[in-house]
Write a structure and sequence with these properties.
- With 410 residues, the chain is an alpha/beta fold.
- Helices cover 33% and strands 19% of the residues.
- It has an eight-stranded mixed sheet with strand order 9-8-10-1-11-14-2-15, with helices on both faces.
- The radius of gyration is 21 Å and the shape is globular.
- It starts with a strand and ends in a 9-residue tail after the last helix.
């Protein structure tokens, strides 16, 4: 049976930009490799969940892996925690956390604290973790940083609830509201979480690293903003569903976590940073090597989404060109492999937000029907032979191309 390589470009879909003369970054990019795959394969567009529904990377990835997020999604927090390597126990509640810059009244000035470096965030995270160990509460707290401004907060104890509101407002210029209970029984969790956040702010405000950032004119990471409270979901593994061995290569905790929840192994690439400066050469080499021992390799690349959130269309186009160069150099080495290139959602590089537009999709390999599309972009792929599919359709499509889907009926 053929093997499968999924190259997932986070936030790949985009909208036209004036700075690119009305083109999207994907249309603007010089990408002969991706265009060649489109010309030799089949293309289409894909709604990660449903038409017009903006999705997060968490729900988008679940859907693309074949798990209905309306059935299986329990919150972003536990997926981030799993990917970060935290020890989640039954009943634990996990949150995704951002280091942020906030004003005296908790008005959010910068949700990413000037994209604080991973190293700086780690130093601040150690201070919070020390505080958590000594924090006087009926619940236990644990904290871990991942990449840049990102982190994970875990609460555990009798009666801890995931029914609390987000503190992160997902936008700047508005106040971060303290957590509120969303159901009876969550009042204690909301109260203790608020106490923890206020104490964490005291620690961050007085930390020498933040004082130095202020002295240099940089934005301090003076608060942590949690969101996506949840408990660990239970997913049937891809091996159980299709009989395949799978591995994920990703720099970010969330993507590792979703794939681990689906039963995938994780291959760590030390120089994969989950940012625009990630080591693409090392990641593609790891993917090529992994295809020798796994049936399915899921290669996640974050930088496309990062450039969009930074509202930098030109940087996104340039990053796509870097990806294209690495992929094109390895096509002839793949052998009997079905290649799929797509995104998990659309992120506009104009306004920096997720949108419900479909994402482009291509599938290339032996036995794949060839359509008449010769370019890989949002507009060209809309004319492709796959038409417009849902994220939930993708895994069955790939598994069927490799002979792994049983016939329905007789």
């Amino acid at each position: 049976m053929s093997k499968i390589l999924i190259v997932l470009l986070d936030g790949l879909g985009d909208r036209p930009s004036r700075s690119l003369n009305g083109m999207t970054p994907l249309q603007r990019a010089n990408k002969p490799g991706l265009d060649e795959l489109a010309a030799e394969g089949v293309t289409g567009i894909m709604d990660p969940v449903a038409p017009g529904v903006p999705v997060g990377s968490d729900t988008g990835h679940l859907s693309i892996l074949g798990y209905d997020p309306y059935k299986f999604y329990t919150g972003r927090g536990p997926l981030e925690a799993l990917g970060a390597g935290m020890d989640l126990r039954p009943g634990d509640v996990a949150f995704r956390v951002n280091f942020a810059t906030v004003g005296d009244d908790w008005t959010v000035i910068d949700r990413r604290a000037g994209r604080i470096s991973t190293e700086e965030a780690r130093a601040l995270g150690e201070a919070i973790r020390e505080m958590a160990a000594a924090f006087d509460s009926e619940f236990a707290f644990d904290f871990l940083t991942t990449v840049e401004h990102r982190g994970v907060l875990v609460m555990r104890g009798d009666g801890v609830s995931d029914e609390v509101t987000d503190v992160d407002p997902h936008m700047e210029g508005v106040k971060a509201e303290m957590p509120r209970p969303r159901s009876p029984g969550a009042e204690r969790t909301a109260r203790e979480l608020e106490r923890f956040l206020r104490k964490a702010r005291e620690v961050l405000e007085s930390h020498p690293l933040n004082r130095e950032r202020v002295r240099k004119g940089l934005r301090p990471a003076n608060a942590i903003l949690p969101r996506g409270a949840g408990k660990m979901p239970r997913l049937p593994s891809l091996r159980e569903r299709y009989g395949v061995s799978c591995v994920v290569i990703a720099g970010g905790a969330l993507y590792r976590g979703v794939c681990k929840a689906a039963g995938m192994d994780v291959r760590i690439v030390p120089t994969a940073t989950g940012t625009l400066n990630t080591d693409l050469n090392a990641k593609f080499n790891a993917a090529l090597e992994s295809l020798k021992t796994y049936d399915l390799v899921f290669l996640h690349i974050k930088g496309t989404d990062t450039a969009s959130h930074d509202r930098n269309p030109s940087a996104k186009a340039a990053f796509i060109e870097r990806i294209d160069k690495e992929l094109r150099a390895r096509i002839d080495q793949l052998g009997d492999v079905i290649v799929c290139v797509t995104g998990d959602h659309t992120t506009s590089s104009v306004d920096g937000r997720h949108h419900g537009d479909p994402v482009p999709l291509l599938i290339w390999g032996e036995g794949v029907r060839r359509d008449e599309v010769v370019r890989f972009d949002e507009v060209s792929c809309a004319r492709g032979g796959l038409g417009r599919i849902r994220g939930l359709d993708l895994m069955n499509t790939l598994m069927d191309l490799t002979g792994r889907v049983e016939m329905f009926g007789e």
